[in-house]
Amino acid sequence: MDFKRRANARILLMGLCFLLVFGVLTGRLWWLQSVDAAWIMQKGSNQWEREKVLQPKRGSILDRNGQVLAYEGKAYTVTANLQPRNEKEKSWVGDNYVRDPFGTAQKLAPILGSSVDSLTKAMTQTYDAEGKPLKFYVNLGREASKITEEQKAQILALQHPKDAYGKEVKENQLPGISLTETTRRYYPNNSLASHVLGYLNYEGNKAEMGIEKQFDEELRGESGELQFMKDGAGFPLPDGQITYSPAKDGQNVVLTIDQQIQEYVEQALDKANSEFKPQHMTVLVTDPKTGEVLAMGDRPDFNPNEYWGITNYLNLAISFPFEPGSTFKIITLAAAIQEGVYHGEEKYASGSYRKIKGKPINDHNNGLGWGNITFAEGVQRSSNVAFVILGYERLKQELLTKYFHDFGIGQLTNIDLPSETKGIMRDLSHPRSERDVAVTTFGQGVAVTAIQQAAAVGAVANGGELLRPRIVKELRDPHTGEVTEKFERVVVRRVVSEQTAKQARDILETVITGDHGTGKIFDLKGYHVAGKTGTAQKYDEKTGKIMEGHYIVSFIGFAPKDNPRLLVYVVVDDPTTDMYYGEMGRKILAPIFNSVMEQSLRYLQQQPDLKELDQQAAKAVQKSSKTSSDAVAQSAPVQEVSMPQLSGSTTSVGSMMAKQLGLVPKVLGTGTKIVRQIPSEQEKVMSGTEVYLVTDRLTDVKLPDFTGKSLREVMEFASLLKLNVIPTGSGYVRSQNIAPGTAVTGKETLSVTLSPDPSPPE
């Protein structure tokens, strides 16, 4: 009986245990299927699903002709494997670790542009600044984070140099150095148009300045996504679900900038910067008929490939407001013409204007003036008094305010660049004094940016329309080249009539060509240039007082005057020089403006005005009509000159240019265009030398008198006509068998007798 009772108890106990275990399992299963179901599914999904973000390629920045200014390309990150500290690290590194940190640093430093000390420290430091142990591999600093293909090749050459037979050594001679492929932003022209382009940081996640920042969204593109199911080894399952969303590469941004014209600007800025070291400089080149910016350069500049060296983060052309001085008079002049208050032949008393309270307003020659002169002469001389009369007296505050506003002063131009400032334009309807109104007429008490001033003067150049400046021409698909967005010409408003603009242009040309013009040094032979100089005194930012001897000098001009292709604005802030400010235009501004304008016009194949050249040549001949060309050359002091390029010009222009250098031109033939010259271009000759100019119609050529000439001069002339020459003796010509003045065809044989004495026989 006891045995049976014990057996039943055991059975009951086992049943209870079984029920308990079953209950626990059932409860756990319920828990897993309900409470923890989501967590378990997520954990499983993480194990068998893989998700990868597909990065887009950043779009390129191109100039108007398709030249690449910025692009995304391959790069490589350099890392160093340190000596393993445990078995786990050794399993990863093996024998490929840096054995000689100092020696490795010495080899890498010149390639990476890093210091030996910084590289050695990186390869020997085992703990970070917080005392935590570093990984067994380390980055070698910023210079090693995105190296080029060329730098990679140099490192590979160190690792596997060639032996005496030209074969690569298989054993790694620079162990522990690894290269990982990545991408970076490249700027192939370095500092060219750096403030226009801006830069992308090395991490590739932040665009700074310029087009890179303004069009970051369009350039960046859109990320893609790839999701797939994998097995335990990480391989995709054959029937696993795949989700694929491709990345969309960024668009290419095509600028209005012309790389060649930009090069001309950069070269001119570099030359002026090295010689005069101003605080700032800006040169703008625009097409006034379209509003397109063809070049925009600043100093100081920077290299976007090494952006950490930036000292000036401002694009001065759009972000640096300054007092423009007399270039601002163009706006007052146009307004006065439009309102009918400018009469060129009307006279006024120059010198000082005393119709306002306080200190009189003086002309720039310390108030001496030029007596009673016409307003036309006043514009040429850049008379402040003339513009005070036109603006303050005749236009008055209301109209001045209207025209300044219409020309865009004190407003953003809305050019597609970041950080544009709108300058400073006082409220002329509530001035602090009458003087504040009066001085704005000639560019004092107002601050503009270079792009504002260029847009305003561009309105006069193009016939009276204020245009929105454009720096971007279009956006293109990076794969097909198809234009996805085009930036059209935008007229903000008409500011003056075409007739007014034409009259203003004619007057501004006299600033360059007139007898009293202050801009004669900006004259370009063969081109009608119109423009205006400007000088403004600088003020101490702390005291607000004028800084003696410190100026912002500028010149704005466009050409050809009646059908302008280009507008060039040059601004130089506080050049380091002790020269009188009146000399700064000739020595600083003119070389910049003239080189940029002339080279750019030639590059654009803008033909010079032949009629203008002929008129200039006629004037030159008229001035020297009292004496013969030979007499002029002989009376001038003898000096060495470099032969200019005369080929390609007209005979009148070529002759004029030769005479201006003290040379004696001899035209061969009856054509109108010079096809060949002797001596050749850039050859050094002495003033008084005869220059032979062969025309495109080589007929009725008269043989010159070679007496006293060298055999070389005879042979040079003979080569032009393919004459056969038989010389006798050596030295200088004493006689010739064909009389001087005889017409020759080139079939004759010329015999000359020479002797060491250059004087002719008695």
TrEMBL record:
Residues 621-649 are annotated as: Disordered. The chain crosses the membrane at residues 12-31. Residues 697-756 form the PASTA domain. It is found in: Membrane. The keyword Membrane applies. Pfam families: PASTA (PF03793), PBP_dimer (PF03717), Transpeptidase (PF00905). GO terms for cellular component: plasma membrane. The keyword Transmembrane applies. InterPro entries: Beta-lactam/transpept, Beta-lactam/transpept-like, PASTA_dom, PBP_dimer, PBP_dimer_sf, PCN-bd_Tpept. Residues 622-632 have a biased composition (Polar residues). GO terms for molecular function: penicillin binding. Keywords: Membrane, Transmembrane, Transmembrane helix. GO terms for biological process: cell wall organization. Belongs to the transpeptidase family. This is Penicillin-binding protein.
